[in-house]
Amino acid sequence: MKPSKSRVFCNDCKRSKILFETEKKANRFISFNQEVIKKEKGYAPKRSYFCSFCCGWHTTSVEGEIGLSKHEKLFNQYFKNNTGIRQEEEERKSDYKTIVRNKIEYQFRNKIKNATKDGIISFLSKEWKKAKKQIRKLATSNDSNKKNGLKDSYIILEIIEKIKQEYGIVTINPHFQKRKSNKDEEWKQWFESRGYGNT
After folding, report:
1. Helix boundaries (H) for 112-173
2. Is 172 exposed, middle or buried (0-12, 13-18, 19+ CB in 10 A)?
3. Could you tell me the pTM of the whole model?
4. pLDDT greater than 70 at residue 45
């Protein structure tokens, strides 16, 4: 009749059950023992099902599908909650970045609203230098507050690049501009010394 050696305590249904290695063995047990068990208990196993907690097959007198086990429901709920928490964190991070970007961009645009192109270049080059200096200073830090400062500095560089493109500014690096103007001056002197500029 009932095998006593293959009984295990199933933590999913919190009681002792017979564990079968395969579905075929569980169904064979039902077909051979169904009538005897019904005489003893008043009910008999009607089908077999796979228990993910025991990693084997049990029999049950419940006719319909059981669906997910208690532990599978808990696992699904856990993963659903964690995924939701991660999504909320990502949204908060993106909201923070958007707020910081909008705030800095608003401040920059107010400062350059009535400025000339040279004034804009001067302002942007000062801010560019500050951001680069801040990045160099914070790049090696492990402090989370300093990491936010690093992100803010990168946002400043992005905004400077955006404003440069809007105003058609090629570069705001003052050293590059000085080199370029010096080279232009050198070429102009060379042309004039050769007599090309006197036409």
Report:
1. 117-138, 144-167
2. buried
3. 0.41
4. yes
